């Protein structure tokens, strides 16, 4: 086997191929690499394997579907699992988010939500409302729509913003909120910038605001107390849709089924993916408020929304998602992050404060970040710690000068103790 033919995503390809990290198998909380070393997964893969790895019940559901219905077109045809899944998701979601549009990724879910927002405005006679307001340090996937509303410069600078977009300031305020546990105290006033952007651009031109309730790839940036509620109020005041990108947060990551429920703020649309199938089969969804669906569908005859994907509501993905929902509910995983394991992870993370060079630690539920002082070095501290951690049998995520953890929801205190030992060893060795 050669490595040179595969152009790997979000990877320093030359570096990887000089020193590859190859994963051979996975079970529960652990990967096994090609050298036979066991690696503790403290990132749930890419924020997605919430149920841990290689769950037999999910694998069997996928296998049964592959044997009986390996594929079904979703344009003008249907299969029962997609309707059952949509009904179950609607039951779990807050408010009137009762309509599910299925995609094959979070990136596709974001682009779909943006198109739904614009289609809704057209359907009600407000075609001028096309601008999208996003936020600095936001990650909304890598398709053209998500890239256009993204707020991480390295992800957007080569592609320009094809859509009319403006950005809210991010809410990371280390000077006032360093080492916060849970919601930071300060920063609600940053929501008022939305009011200023409305006055600048005109509410008649703004279709929607899209935010991650907790910014993931931007560095686990947790909203200040009252911030999301204030965004909701301003959107309501000016007839602007509010979209929550819950690709990372949904399915129990923050201690409730969604961050919307955890923070008691109901958006008009919600994107989800990752935990929907616990990473087993690619799938995403947009949960849409009844008023939006009804407005678009009632506005025309025939095809009401010219959008969709070859693999929308793929039978194998629906089977996986239904099996995952069964496990989430049976094992009470949607709320597990509220319990002792979430608090124990918080304690262990904040003990790292005693190490030199750490300027912030922040966490909520089973999400956490440790931020280091910027170094006079071409390699950010996040990347350095990530590499050392892998050598020590630990998978974390490096993001600039931060490291991030987002473990599977099944972790136990013993796994957190193992993480503690290995992360201390990794940081101190640099």
From TrEMBL:
Provide the coiled-coil residue spans.
none
Q: Which CDD domains match?
A: OAT_like
Q: Give the enzyme's EC designation.
A: 2.6.1.18
UniProt KW keywords: Aminotransferase, Pyridoxal phosphate, Pyruvate, Transferase
- Domain of life from the UniProt record: Bacteria
Its Gene Ontology biological processes? biotin biosynthetic process
Enzyme class (EC, first level): transferase
The record's section on InterPro entries has:
Aminotrans_3, Aminotrans_3_PPA_site, PyrdxlP-dep_Trfase, PyrdxlP-dep_Trfase_major, PyrdxlP-dep_Trfase_small
Q: What Gene3D superfamilies does the annotation carry?
A: Aspartate Aminotransferase, domain 1, Type I PLP-dependent aspartate aminotransferase-like (Major domain)
CC cofactor: pyridoxal 5'-phosphate
Could you give a GO molecular-function term held by this entry? adenosylmethionine-8-amino-7-oxononanoate transaminase activity
The family assignment reads: Belongs to the class-III pyridoxal-phosphate-dependent aminotransferase family.
The name this protein carries in UniProt is Beta-alanine--pyruvate transaminase
Q: Which organism is it from?
A: Pseudoteredinibacter isoporae
In the record, what lineage is assigned to the organism producing the protein? Bacteria, Pseudomonadati, Pseudomonadota, Gammaproteobacteria, Cellvibrionales
